[in-house]
Amino acid sequence: MKNLNNQIMMVLFLVVCSILHAGQYTFTVQGEKTFLNDQEIVVKGLRLSNALISEAATEQTIAHLDTFKYYGLNTISVFFMGSRFGDIKGYNEDASLNPVYADRMARIIKAADQRGMIVLVGCLYWSNSKAKWESWQQKDANKAVANTVAWLKEYDFKNVFVDVDNEGMAHRGKGFDVGELIRAGKKVNPECVIASNYHGGPIPEEDLRIHFSEKISGKPYIESEGTPHNAPGKYWGTYSKIEGYYNYINIGVYTYEMKRNQIKVSKHHFDNGDGYMLASTWLQCVEPYGPNQRPGGYGYKVDPGIRWWLEFVRDHYGPYIEPPLPGTKIYQEKNGVLCVEAENYDKKIDRKPDGFENIHSWQINNDKKGYSGSGFVQIMPDEYCEGCDGPSSPRDASGAELVWRIKVSTPGTYYIWVRGMSMGGESNGCHIGVDGVLPYMGPGSNMSGFRPHHEWVWENKFKPESQEPKIFLKEGDHTLHLWQRDDGFRCDKILLVKDNQYRPSDHGPNESKMIIVE
Description:
Distance between the termini: 53 Å
CATH class of the largest domain: Alpha Beta
CATH topology of the largest domain: TIM Barrel
Largest sheet: 8 strands, parallel, barrel
Oligomer: single chain
Number of helices: 11
Shape: elongated
């Protein structure tokens, strides 16, 4: 028993450690609209209800948040009480939060908050889930919701809204009053946004309506479990389930007609200002076939997944750019030129690439003279010396990252230049991208050839397997990204320029004008 108590205390300690710096973004409801930090936002998301089922599922969810942003998504849903076939017991029988699952949920919410994303936090999932507690009465369900809202408040998680009873399953199965569940949460924190999700009339205390609740005047509506309307036998019926088999079938598989219908329904919601969150067997199936908290492929049996839907969202609505926080610097493009000082980044994300021993980070430095501005950035630690054996440098967006906010007034194709310094062949490159995710070997990947070593040089060279470092930018707000390739590499400036004949020299153009968000 003593060892068990020690294990529980350790888990709780990890929960606390994982929640530092939460609360940058706040999700609110005003009338029929939803807002994030007072900026109107239409929820576009994915139902990842089994994201807490394992450490691997949680880590995969966090690892793909940037990918989802690139495709235009701003919201995910995650359940404490695991959904069909997931059986996640996020609540103990006394209605307290299980610390293992609370830690996983905390890490997901924190990672979402860092990216300006929203999390639907699901409480009860009744139905035939083995995660439910048959012993519970109304008071126990109320307590579970109250404990969830208290936990969110304690750790200052505000980029969330709560679904107390998925599809009113506990209401139908046990007779629990949904209004009581909502009031139990509101009693703990009246500011917490709580949704109703059942076939029933409006509840005075509800903030918005989702899924099974009908859209009504005066409140926002989000379809939080969107599926095609024309799946044979219904999507969550015989199309995806078979009696006696405890998992989904047709995992991530769609017919041509189902795809067309799914896109039509999604577009109808988005264009009418209603939120929409795709639900898929691809995302929710459990081992050995999931959960797959990633895009996957194009919905064929030989290439299952939801990438086809993600590409629809991106192509019609663009990548998701989160509302800027107060104090954010936004670089302004002028006359086809945009130049940023590397040290004046807006956001820094540290990561541990596969095979590396330590978490890597872009650090501001000034030990190499000749830099522009107040310094430069260097990827640290520089683990691997020239000629030493070590892991391959990350060739995607999995390494440490810096982000700048930029605003483009002159749309068109921009050529990418980097002013950098290498110490040798093992610290000779980086990746540059725009609006979230660097496509593998795409434009801006594998920028290299910074020679002579130990000198500041402008380069737009790239590896043969990559694409020319140029990218088309629409008018409006974007994000510019620098990702780790080789540790030890130093970056002083990044330049985007429309003139393909321009060759920067010395310190290059002056830093572009910035505005500061109040």
